[in-house]
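Input sequence (278 aa), recorded before submission:
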Amino acid sequence: MSEITAHHGLLTDIDLHVDDTGGTGRPVVLIHGWPLSGESWAHQVPAIEAAGYRVVTYDRRGFGRSDKPRSGYDYDTFSDDLQAVIETLDLRDATLVGFSMGGGEVARYLTRHGADRIHSVVFASAVPPYLAKTDDNPEGPLDDETADGMKQGLKSDEKAFYHQFTTDFFSVDGTLAVSEADRAEAERLANQADHHAALKSMEAFATTDFRDDLPNVTVPALVIHGDSDATVPFEGSGKRTHEAIAGSELHVVTGAPHGVNVSHADEFNRVVIDFLQR
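Predicted structure, token format:
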């Protein structure tokens, strides 16, 4: 493990916590969802490393073991933080795997930094192309009432909110699709998040429009999504992302909730590793 300094001005350098398996394999960077940390990839790191890859995870600013500054909770800065990880570790020919809000980093990274160091990308249960339901985005799955309810819930009782959020995160039709231990672990990670960072990041993933970013995905792309995802519904997100990226591959996991990388870890790992090997 190590700390990587992301430079965003004379007085705003922050340290990001990074875990790197090392080795000579082609690098795979796993970008976690909200409000978790790099530890949420525990079911993926050993499998991908065993398949011969160098696996890098990091905690987004404001979450997990990374610094928790008061600013920088927007996708331009998030993608610049990702670039700091890639450049500091001198990763080349890398695959970026973005889960949930992490899919936004993938899309915005290619717009801001290009694909010179990137081999391929994976959008997993990801928020693009645009979550907010608006007049010019009627297919957006997140309406104002739901977004406001999430914000107020987090503000009023953070611990209760995270307990319910992680339950919904891993549930299908009200039934938990993972062990209680897996759900509790996600809740533990959520409780490491800075309150201000969680609110500002929620606003970012709820309101950022990635529709103009997706045409910049010119490397091979895989979209993987559960068909029973109630947090980031497939029809309004993964399906549209697949349609927006020319030549992208799509894998829909039957009966999977939002946290498909845990509930269906074997299938998720197999599909991602198969994609990596092509």
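Checked by second reader. The longest strand covers residues 14-20.
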